[in-house]
Amino acid sequence: MGRYTVSGTITETHEVLSGIRPTEDMEREWKRPKPYANKTMYVRLGSTNKYTKKVYRRFTTDSAGKFIISLPPGKYCIVQQPKRDRLKIPDYTAQNKQLRNFEQYQVADKKCFDDWYASCDTTIEVKDKNLLDIRFNIHFGWNPPCVSGGPIPQ
Description:
Number of domains: 1
Oligomer: single chain
Order of helices and strands: EHEEEEEHEHEEE
Structural class: mainly beta
């Protein structure tokens, strides 16, 4: 079974959230795709992300968000680092209770969170030829979906 080249560009956009009302220029800037530069991405077999599945391969984007990897035919789930391992959300644990109210966080909807975690940032299928110049965007909010308050869990 042969291997094929998969190459492309990853960009990122950000949620428009702020303690003050952002200007139109600020909103445009946050929504404008920028290179997802110098980031490691993880490849799992199949079309869903399961932390119990071993990471098959990983690759790192360059300063322009470009990447290149070699894969045999198959379906692949590509995820960013926060989805590589099982996230630890201390939902009213002793550690979380020691934080000030505005620093505490909790899973507002466990099913929603589990569904988000199981989703791939993109899926690809390698058949019998190279996949060149694929493009996808990762959109970031302040927290993962279905999590409220506090710092972003790692």
